[in-house]
Amino acid sequence: MPLPKRRHSKARGRKRRTHYKLTAPNVVECPNCHGSRLPHHICSHCGFYDGRQMVQVKEA
Predict the structure, then answer these.
(1) How many other C-beta atoms lie within 10 A of the C-beta of residue 21?
(2) What is the pLDDT of residue 4?
(3) Residue 31 belongs to what domain range?
(4) Is the distance from CB of 33 to CB of 45 less than 8 angstroms?
(5) b/e per residue 36-45 (b: at least 16 CB within 10 A)
(6) Is 50 contained in some domain?
(7) Residue 7 domain-assigned?
(8) Which pLDDT tens digits describe the chain residue by residue (60 residues)?
(9) Is residue 9 part of a domain?
(10) What pLDDT score was predicted for residue 35?
């Protein structure tokens, strides 16, 4: 395997890593209960998806 001839500086490595960052998840409002949920997922608060009850949610 090829090896680097000279060592890369810290700045060069850090410039390359500037785009390694976390992105916040895209959150939408549930049309049924107006809670927050991920798009294309069943709402964890009310259990609805696409206007239909998919799962029964246990109440605490």
Answers:
(1) 6
(2) 84
(3) 24-60
(4) yes
(5) ebeeeebbee
(6) yes
(7) no
(8) 888 899 999 999 999 999 999 999 999 999 999 999 999 999 999 999 998 999 998 876
(9) no
(10) 94
Contacts of 39 (CB under 8 A, 6+ apart): 26, 28
C-alpha atoms less than 13 angstroms from C-alpha of 47 in its C-beta half-sphere = 7
Concatenating the DSSP letter of every residue in the chain gives ----SSPPPHHHHHHHGGG----PPP-EE-TTT--EE-TTS--TTT-EETTEE-SPPPP-
Q: Look at residue 18 and tell me if it is in a domain.
A: no
Distance between CA atoms of 58 and 60, rounded to whole angstroms?
7
Domain count, the chain: 1
